Amino acid sequence: MKERVIKGDDCIAEGAAWLCDAEPRFAAAMQDLPPLPLRLKPDGFAALLNPIVSQQVSVASANAIWGRLEVAGMTTPDAVAGATEDELRALGLSRQKIRYAHALAAAEINYGALRDMPADEVHKTLVAVPGIGIWTAEIYTMFSLGRADVFAPGDLALQEAARLVFDLPARPTEKVLRTMAQDWTPWRSVAARILWAYYKHIKQREGVT
Which residue of 35, 96, 114, 178 is most buried, as measured by CB atoms within 10 A? Predict the structure, then answer.
């Protein structure tokens, strides 16, 4: 059976209504939230190269490096594969990230085929590439492929939001949150959007941006 794909705001609204009906704590969390964002992004090579570039640097630094890569035309597999280490280092990539970028370019992923592949198979395909972990694979599946029933329990903001929404004594581990999220099928991606939005709301209320 083909997995449900989120295509517009109506899908988000449908998922949110289902979750609020199934779990009163989601309904309570959403009372003070604006409409949930769609957050869909293009798929393909650049959508995976970008999080590699962003690893372990500030948002500002990541944006600056990505901007230089775009200006240099280094956001396609052919361009990255043909670039030398010195050329990529000059654009701001570390030696490790250059290795990851070259590995992604050499992986010859069929991005079109990923669109019809089960989420678990997408994740297996992506994490086989050096530099891509399960969090990146799940985020890609959630936002670039639009899958409705994917979650990223290793995300710290999701863990903290779950602690607050469900009044837990401590932030849940990735394993615990993955188990919790099973109850939110078939709308785990929308559950993630609720939790991220709630986390953002709480931080803004605390004066943290």
Answer: 114
pLDDT at 204: 87
Flag residues of the chain having pLDDT under 70.
1, 208-209
The angle at the Cα of 180, spanning 178 to 184, to the nearest 5 degrees, equals 100
Q: What confidence score (pLDDT) does residue 96 get?
A: 96
- Cα–Cα distances (Å) from 149 to 116, 125, 188, in that order, read 14, 18, 5
The CATH homologous superfamily for domain 45-144 is Hypothetical protein; domain 2 (1.10.340.30)
pTM greater than 0.85: yes
For the domain spanning 9-36+149-205, the CATH number is: 1.10.1670.40
Q: Which residues pair with residue 5 across a beta bridge? A: 147
Q: Is 169 exposed, middle or buried (0-12, 13-18, 19+ CB in 10 A)?
A: exposed
- With beta carbons less than 8 A apart as the criterion, state whether 69 and 45 touch: no
Cα-based distances in Å from 114 to 46, 75, 123: 15, 19, 10
Residue 198, Cα to own-chain centre: how many angstroms? 17
Q: For the chain, which residues make up each domain, given as ranges?
A: 9-36+149-205, 45-144
Say what the pLDDT of residue 1 is: 67
Q: Which helix (H) or strand (E) holds 134?
A: helix 134-139
**DSSP 8-state assignment for residue 147:** B
